[in-house]
Amino acid sequence: MKAMNPMKLFGSVRPATKNKTITYLMVLIFFGISGILVQTGSVGSLFTGLLVPMCYYIIMAVSLNLTVGILGELSLGHAGFMCVGAYVGGIFSLLTKDAISQVWIRFPLAMLIGGLCAALMGILIGVPILRLRGDYLAIVTLAFGEIIRKVVQNIYIVSDKNGLHFSFVNTVNPASIDLATKEEILNGPMAVSGIPKDTTLWIAVLMVMITLFVIMNLVDSRSGRAIMAIRDNRIAAEATGISITRHKLIVFVTSSFFAGLAGVLYAHFSTITPVKFDYNMSILILVFVVLGGIGNIRGSVIAAVILYALPELLRGFQNYRMLIYAIVLIVMMLLNNNAKFIQFKAGLGRKLFHRKAKEAA
Amino acid sequence: MSYLEVTNIGISFGGLRAVDDFCLNIEKGQLYGLIGPNGAGKTTVFNLLTGVYQPDKGKVELDGVNLTGRSPVEINQNGIARTFQNIRLFNNLTVQDNVKAGLHNQNSYSVFEGILRLPRYRRQEQAMDKRAVELLKVFDLDQEKDTLASNLPYGKQRKLEIVRAMATHPKLLLLDEPAAGMNPNETAELMETIQFVRGHFDMTILLIEHDMKLVSGICEELTVLNFGSVLVQGNTGDVLNNPEVITAYLGD
Amino acid sequence: MSFISYLVSGISLGSIYALIALGYTMVYGIAKMLNFAHGDVIMVGAFAVFTAMMTFQLPVWASILIGILVCMILGIVIERVAYKPLRGASPLSVLITAIGVSYLLQNLALLIFGSSARNFQSVVTLPAWQVNSQLSISGETMVTIIVTTVIMIVLTLFINKSKPGRAMLAVSEDRGAAQLMGINVNGTITLTFAIGSALAAVAGVLLCSLYPQISAYTGQMPGIKAFIAAVFGGIGSIPGAMIGGILLGIIENLSKAYISSQLSDVIVFAVLILVLLVKPTGILGKKIQEKV
Q1: pLDDT of res. A360
Q2: Is the dihedral of CA A332, A337, A339, A343 positive or negative?
Q3: Which residues of B210-229 are buried (b: 16+ CB within 10 A; e: fewer)?
């Protein structure tokens, strides 16, 4: 067998496949090295505690970019799907803690159920808003996100020997509850206690890889082209026989499923209260997506990691960190849209790639 | 019965009757022209035929299938493809991907098969790549297949729109001012291309044009539209010499 | 309390939303952007008045004037520094920048005033009106309704009758044509922001008089709700903003009274969604026909 030049082999691969591989490698290398550093105790607990959240924020950003960057519709309620996933998945684990004691059965089930419920919510919300465009769609997604949060904030679930009791008003009527076996499951705006902390780093990274695999392959397929066609020119897409409804629904379902998945990871790592899933979180994720590049999946990964870590690492500045964050945001947006800066970036890029080409020759 | 049979379609916008009692009969394989002064309603007719607007009366039938009142997606799936007066390409997709978007309905692999990269996905994608390049070659665009559509020069963008329309495997091709913004050389080349498309793909073509050289050069029959109504219909030579037509264009 | 009293306080709350919504809608109409930071300008206005009254012991009328002035300057500065350079950028970019400005204002306020809510001394000294044994309307409610009504009338007259007002209409209709007609587009846009911010200041003062607490987050929820009201009424439409705001206030108050105070927001949002489903461009919104 003649020896094959590996670079030549790599060169004949489709550019899309090359790009995806680079993204997978970046994730694996970053978390791989971080994981090792954590194991060897080389990094403090601050950084360690950031790694798992980075994963679910990556999933949130990538799934939102599918809606905002690939489909081209502005969604301001993404946190609502995370909320649904977190609560459904979390409560499932809570209720089945004893019945299904093996984590490797229970946790995947929780993730699946949480994701599916979020996806269902995605359809419920997606169908009515199919006709809306632009700012109107944005405002409705914002409203839906708030509705989900507020509803969850007002649900009270208590279990006793007779089963589950639901209420929308302050803790369920005590007369109907057998106090001896009473257990609070959901207590309105309070945190849910008792969800097993099943999310480990390698599970979280696995979920990131799965999310990237599904979404990047979706984009690089017939459906992805159709979705981007709708984004670029809706009228031409229709005239080319592409169904707007079907593809918008594909996007909503996929995007919300993964947001729900991220929520399940969150619930099994940190405490969940409804107020954490408000529009401030939706906006936070949107910022990740925009700064990482709208439509740029790898950019979302990088932005989620850096921008999530930044305020946390700026804790030294304590009071000023959010202020700095806000200023950085504004400056970045101004720079990104400044013609001179764009030219400067392009020139920099050319210099870097020129050097790489010369080295490879 | 004609291949394309349009009977008495019409539409109003606000108080204005934009198109009224429009009738058209095109036989299979014809190269037909729709002409008229600016604002006559020609693009509106196209929009009525392709489902962008719904006619408030009348009927549209293609190859025996009733297309009246159906959605643009359905109408394309039933055989009508079009280009637009103001080019509507998928600007952030490459030339090849624009064509592959046109091939969307010629393929059937599901979302799951796509995501999991199952054999049907691979087979069909490879076939699509081949077909897209074939189509692009016909229009001499295959060298630019990886260029972003927005980076093509104007003339090539117009051609790409036609390629994309052809990719949807239509029975009837509607071209809305394909020669707009072209110089005489480009127009001559376009005339050849359109005739080639008609012959090679066995295509029926209806085009809107202002360029009389193109119209008289390749169209077999014409309909003249004025103020939303049909003025004259018939074979090209007769129509272009009709004094009413000349008056409509030049005024009294 | 009776239905009438809930209705009246709903109208009062709604007129505040209307004032804020006017700011959103005018800016949207003219600059085609959603000024996400608008809600926080309300907070700044309220804090300016608060500081003038509490720290500097200035009389009420002077404090309010200062508040309006501060907000107008703030609005103009924000427009010049953050929004003007982004004219022509994608709507998403502008939205994110506006979000940045919003965070900036909130965090500045947090730094200066701390995170705990302060008590805001109502600026209204009018005593409550005891209509009958069951109905009493507070001074704040009356002043709010009267002031906002006057402002809305003046604003409508200004926009339709005065030269700068009509310039605003022209620029929002067709910026290019307006420029060709000799209208100072930059000045008109700046004026719009200034007026919107002034309205926000008034809204802030009235809001904090009605619900006498103030914190860095005071403007956030009313801002969102007023934004919803503006879209509800048809974004870009001034009468729409007024109607949307008042309707929203009424729906919110009646929901609080008769259904649940916790779920009142849910109902408000749900109503918005229903309206938009039936009329996708809002109550008075214009349907924009895309040219094919």
Answers
A1: 47
A2: positive
A3: ebeebbeebbebbbbbbbbb
| Ramachandran quadrant class, A280 (left: phi over 0; alpha: psi -120 to 50; beta: rest) | alpha
Interface predicted TM-score (ipTM): 0.93
What's the gap in Å between the CA of B180 and the closest CA on chain A? 18
* Residue of A222, A247, A248 to mutate for B, most B C-beta atoms under 10 A: A222
Residue A305 contacts C where some CB pair is shorter than 8 Å:
no
**Does A124 lie at the interface with C, CB-CB under 8 angstroms?**
no
**What integer pLDDT is reported at residue A55 of this predicted model?**
96
Picking from A10, A78, A21, A16, the residue whose alpha carbon sits closest to that of residue A304 is A78
Reported as a pLDDT band with limits 50, 70 and 90, residue A361 is very low
Query: Is a pLDDT exceeding 70 seen at residue C287?
Result: no
**CATH number corresponding to A15-154+189-360:** 1.10.3470
CB-nearest to A229 from B72, B101, B165 is: B101
Cα A239 to Cα B74: distance, rounded to the nearest angstrom: 9
Q: Residue B192: which residues within 8 A CB-CB, separation 6 or more?
A: none
**Contacts with C292 from chain A: Cβ below 8 Å:** 235
Domain C3-278 has CATH 1.20.58: no
| DSSP, res B107 | -
Cβ density class B142-163: b for 16+ within 10 Å, e for less? eebbeebbeebeebbbbbbbbb
Tell me the pLDDT tens digit for each residue of A14-45. 888 999 999 999 999 999 999 999 888 887 88
Q: Please choose, from the candidates B25, A330, B238, the residue with its C-alpha nearest in 3D space to the C-alpha of residue C93.
A: A330
Query: Taking an 8 Å Cβ-Cβ cutoff, which residues of chain A contact chain B?
Result: 213-214, 217-218, 221-226, 228-229, 231-233, 235-244, 250, 295
Contact (CB, 8 A) for B221 and B235? yes
Burial label for B94, CB within 10 Å (0-12, 13-18, 19+), is middle
Could you state, in order of their start, the residue ranges of all structural domains in chain A?
Answer: 15-154+189-360
Q: Give the integer Cα–Cα distance in Å for C35 and B36.
A: 46
Contact status of C107 with chain A (Cβ, < 8 Å): yes
**Residues of chain C found within 8 Å of residue A169, distances taken between Cβ atoms:** 260
Element containing residue C154 per DSSP (H, E)? helix C139-161
Tell me if chain A has a CB within 8 Å of the CB of C292: yes
pLDDT of residue A234: 93
User: Residue B8 carries which DSSP code?
Assistant: E
- H/E run at residue A213: helix A201-219
User: Which CATH homologous superfamily contains domain B1-79+170-252?
Assistant: P-loop containing nucleotide triphosphate hydrolases (3.40.50.300)
Q: Is there a contact between B115 and A231 if contact means CB atoms under 8 Å apart?
A: no
A351 CB-near residues (< 8 Å, 6+ apart): none
- For CA atoms B90, B93, B95, B101, give the dihedral sign: negative
A322 close to C92: Cβ distance less than 8 angstroms? no
Walking along chain B (252 residues) 10 residues at a time, the average pLDDT comes out as: 94 92 95 93 95 95 95 96 95 96 94 94 95 94 94 92 96 95 90 93 94 93 94 92 86 62
Q: What residues in C contact A279, CB-CB < 8 Å?
A: 224
Q: Where are the domains of chain B?
A: 1-79+170-252, 92-168
